Amino acid sequence: MKKELFKPEGLIQHTDRRAFLKMGTLSVAGAGLLLMGCKDDEDVMPPVSGGVSLGSGDVGILNYAYALEQLEAAFYAQVMMGSYFANASAEEKTIMGDLEKHERAHREFFKAALGANAIADLEVDFSSIDFSSRNSVLGAAKTFEDLGVAAYNGAGQFLESGDLLLIAGKIVSVEARHAAAIRDLINPNSADFAGDDIIDANGLERTLNFQEVLTAASTYVKTEIDFSQLPG
C-alpha cells in the first residue's frame, strides 16, 4: 500500500503528543525487568585501557543497549539543564521532560540488571549541539531516537534469552514513540513520523548493526568502546 493513501495528520495531533508518549511509558518494576538481568556468576567486564569492553553474549548486548541509553539520558539531561532551548513552548518542554524520564529509567534498568557486569559511565561530548537552538536540539534528538530504534532492531536477533528479547521489544516500542513525537515536532502533521528514510516499502523499520550504530554514536561519545566480542 502506498504511503499517500494514509492520512498521517490525524495520528499525532499537537494536543495528543504527550498522551501518545504516555502509552509507551515503561514500568520497570511492573515488567519485572530487574529479575531478568544477568546472572550473579557472570564474569565482570574486563577493563580496556582508556575505554570499556562490552563483553560477549547477552551481557555484551545489554551493555551495548546500556551505552546507548547512557548517551540518550545524558542528552536530555543537558537539554533540561539549560532550561530547554530558546523560546521552547510549554508542549515542547513537557515532551522533553517525559523523554528525559523515560531514558533515565532505561539507563537505570540496564545498570541494575547488569550489576557488576555493567560498563563504566561513558564520557559524552555534545559540543557539536547548540542547546540554545530549537533546530539543533530537535535535530540531535531525532538522530538519537532514530539511532536507538535501529540499534535495538539490529541487536534483538542475537539475544539468547527470550525474556530479554521481550524486554528489548518493550523498550524499542518506547523509543519508536519518542522518534515519532520528535519528528512530528520538527514537521507537524506530515508523514515524517514514519518517513521513507526509516521505513521501507514493506513497512519495516530500518536496522543497523553494532558497528554502524557505534560509529554514528562516536561523534558524541569520547570513551573508547570495544565491541569486538559481540556477534555478527
Reconstruct the topology from this structure:
Blueprint: H1 17-22, H2 28-31, E1 51-53, H3 57-81, H4 90-114, H5 134-155, H6 162-186, H7 210-217, E2 224-226
Parallel strand pairs: 1-2
Helix pairs in contact: 3-4, 3-5, 4-6, 5-6, 5-7
Descriptive keywords:
50% helix, disordered N terminus, 2 strands, two-stranded parallel ribbon
Describe the structure concisely for a colleague.
50% of the residues lie in helices and 3% in strands. It is mainly α.
Q: Could you characterize the architecture of this molecule?
A:
With 232 residues, this protein is mainly α. The chain has one domain: Ferritin, core subunit, four-helix bundle (Ferritin, Up-down Bundle). It has helices at 17-22, 28-31, 57-81, 90-114, 134-155, 162-186, 210-217; strands at 51-53, 224-226. The radius of gyration is 18 Å and the shape is globular. 37% of the residues are buried. Mean pLDDT is 85; it is low at 1-15 and 23-37.
How would you state the average pLDDT, rounded? 85
Q: What series of H and E elements makes up the topology? A: HHEHHHHHE
Proportion in helices: 40-55%
What's the CATH C level? Mainly Alpha
- Sheet-strand content, in percent, reads under 5%
Number of helices: 7
**What is the CA-CA span between the terminal residues?**
33 Å
Gyration radius, to the nearest Å? 18 Å
Helix/strand-derived category reads mainly alpha
Q: Could you give me the name of the CATH homologous superfamily?
A: Ferritin, core subunit, four-helix bundle
- Please tell me the total number of domains: 1
Question: Which blocks of ≥5 consecutive residues have pLDDT under 50?
Answer: 1-15, 23-37
- How is the quaternary structure best described? single chain
Give the biggest beta sheet: 2 strands, parallel
**Do you know the CATH architecture?**
Up-down Bundle
Strand runs, count: 2
CATH fold naming: Ferritin
Strand order of the largest sheet: 1-2
Tell the overall outline: globular
